[in-house]
Design brief:
glycoprotein; signal; 4 strands; 9% strand; two-stranded antiparallel sheet; rod-shaped; mainly alpha; phosphoprotein; two-stranded antiparallel ribbon; single chain; 4 helices
């Protein structure tokens, strides 16, 4: 927007307001704020005078403290921010850092805990599936052995060997030792 005499008046009024609020004295008037070297880019310096004392200017430290204390009011009056309205030698008033409602460490802890729980669940489920698959294979193998028990040899049904306990051939089994051993 254009910087004109009305904007200068508003700036002087805001500085006078800041000085009155800071020092709690009502002697500072708009006429006590002097603007010097105003340029087209709205760059200038200003001085605050004190007519109640014999001193012509108010110390710079008092003016800086008053501006710092009321900076948000001055920025609001001009609809500006600390990035657009800059006072040299006066540090900008930064807003406090935003703190999340949940601490960051708690979020990280929750993510890690969820990953661990998901891993444990995965291991348990895969173990159960492997166990079921192994049991299914073993029962299929036993069913095959049971089916092969009766075999035909030369058209005559024969008993299959019991592979687990073995098979005793009755021909060579001697009930009594009639025959000489070989």
């Amino acid at each position: 927007y254009a910087w004109d005499a009305n904007e200068e008046y508003l700036f002087k009024a805001m500085v006078a307001f800041a000085m009155r609020r800071y020092s709690s004295r009502s002697s500072t008037q708009i006429s006590n704020v002097l603007l010097c070297n105003v340029t087209d880019r709205v760059s200038f310096w200003f001085v605050v005078t004190d007519s109640s004392k014999n001193v012509t200017t108010v110390p710079g430290s008092e003016v800086e403290a008053a501006i710092r204390m009321n900076r948000n009011r001055i920025n609001s009056a001009f609809l500006l921010s600390d990035k657009t309205l800059q006072f040299l030698k006066i540090t900008s008033t930064l807003s406090p850092p935003v703190e999340p409602s949940t601490p960051v460490w708690l979020i990280v802890f929750g993510v890690v805990l969820c990953l661990i729980v998901a891993g444990i669940v995965f291991l348990i489920v895969s173990g159960i599936q492997k166990h079921k698959k192994k049991n299914k294979e073993s029962t299929e193998g036993e069913n095959l052995e049971e089916k092969v028990e009766v075999t035909l040899e030369n058209g005559i049904p024969c008993e299959a060997l019991d592979l687990k306990t073995g098979h005793v051939n009755g021909v060579f089994a001697a009930d009594d030792e009639r025959f000489t051993s070989l």
